[in-house]
Amino acid sequence: MDTLAIDGGTPVRTKPFPQWPIYGELEERGLLEVLHSGKWGGTGRVKLQELEERFAAYHGAAYGITVANGTIGITAALMAAGVGPGDEVIMPPYTFIATATSALLFGAVPVFADVEPDTLLLDPEKVEPLITSKTKAIITVHIAGAPSDMTRLKEIAARRGLRLIEDSAQAVGARWEGQGVGAIGDLGTFSFQSSKNLNAGEGGMILTNDRELADRVWSFSNVGRVREGGWYQHERIGWNLRMTEFQAAVLLGQMTRLDEQMEKRERNGKLLTKLLGEIEGIRTLRRDPRITRHAYHLYMFKLAPEVADAVAKSEVIRRIQAEGIPVSAGYVSLNRNEAVLREIESLTGERRVNDCPVSERACEKETLWLHQNVLLGDEEDMHDIARAVQKVLAACGSKDSVRP
Ligand SMILES: *Cc1c(COP(=O)(O)O)cnc(C)c1O
């Protein structure tokens, strides 16, 4: 057997993967146009208007409202949906901390419902038992770019009189049964932060098909003004949550490459699932056949239970990284994040812990990540990844594995 790179052997790969961001003349030209126009902010609304229309149309939504970032986008969506301080919001714990902090920002209380073991997406069956008289909304997260079960979640939300918000920060362009994410539920939020599949450095977008919700989000984001109203006509408490014309210019450039990049990520994602699926000790995630387009912001895969119990995940990661493959460990389950728990305690007066064994185990022991830029490589790059994983797993299975 080949010696592992970490033990002095030759790494499977030394070539770098595609760099991120990717940009060109369109972004350059757009930025200069904004610069020379003198309309730099969020009220000039030339590029912003065009972006909102194009982005909403791309997802089949009636309305798009740009905001400063994805986090504040979720906050504005929750508030527009009528969620207030003290209300409970059910969400998965396997997500970026912003899903929870967006609610905590105004005193709403996250309640964590576990994820499905084979998709790591919010498990609809875990949602209903957590609904109380205080529950106002469900936030589902299309984690890694895979749409969650919108059919089932919509049914639950409708039957229990709850609002359904899609945290689509990782899922630009993804589709569930042919429908673009973001406007399948009541409201959907997106992020244009540097790592995301559409990148403006920072930025965000909210989509909805509901005119009233769109107007409310717009008003919250524009210091309580009303569309068509006067400059100093503030009809509710709102804030300046606007994005700038510069960001919109960059995003209009980025959007022209989106289809091509999405197709490439899909192709490579499917190939990786085939290659990694053949490796003993690896479990690939299940892709629901109703996902008609996966955004692959991340490629996630798991160590098989027996491997995860025998070898420390951090050690597997170190060894695969040494072979030249940039795998990473991903999240700490939010239901175990001490800062989140402290804040919930200060809001409710109780030490509330929602056990989410599937998410906790996925975070601590099983799940590995590759970032979206890796999926912009070619077919041979995917074979390198599989070769490195195979090499490390074979060594883990054989001899002096490091115990967890
Ligand atoms: C990135 C991200 C956010 C927050 O977006 P920002 O633009 O960084 O504020 C929220 N939820 C998820 C799942 C994310 O990945």
Automatic annotation (TrEMBL):
<dbReference type="InterPro" id="IPR000653">
    <property type="entry name" value="DegT/StrS_aminotransferase"/>
</dbReference>
<dbReference type="InterPro" id="IPR015424">
    <property type="entry name" value="PyrdxlP-dep_Trfase"/>
</dbReference>
<feature type="active site" description="Proton acceptor">
    <location>
        <position position="196"/>
    </location>
</feature>
<keyword id="KW-0032">Aminotransferase</keyword>
<comment type="similarity">
    <text>Belongs to the DegT/DnrJ/EryC1 family.</text>
</comment>
<dbReference type="InterPro" id="IPR015422">
    <property type="entry name" value="PyrdxlP-dep_Trfase_small"/>
</dbReference>
<dbReference type="GO" id="GO:0000271">
    <property type="term" value="P:polysaccharide biosynthetic process"/>
</dbReference>
<dbReference type="GO" id="GO:0030170">
    <property type="term" value="F:pyridoxal phosphate binding"/>
</dbReference>
<keyword id="KW-0663">Pyridoxal phosphate</keyword>
<keyword id="KW-0808">Transferase</keyword>
<feature type="modified residue" description="N6-(pyridoxal phosphate)lysine">
    <location>
        <position position="196"/>
    </location>
</feature>
<dbReference type="InterPro" id="IPR015421">
    <property type="entry name" value="PyrdxlP-dep_Trfase_major"/>
</dbReference>
<protein>
    <submittedName>
        <fullName>DegT/DnrJ/EryC1/StrS family aminotransferase</fullName>
    </submittedName>
</protein>
<dbReference type="GO" id="GO:0008483">
    <property type="term" value="F:transaminase activity"/>
</dbReference>
<dbReference type="Pfam" id="PF01041">
    <property type="entry name" value="DegT_DnrJ_EryC1"/>
</dbReference>
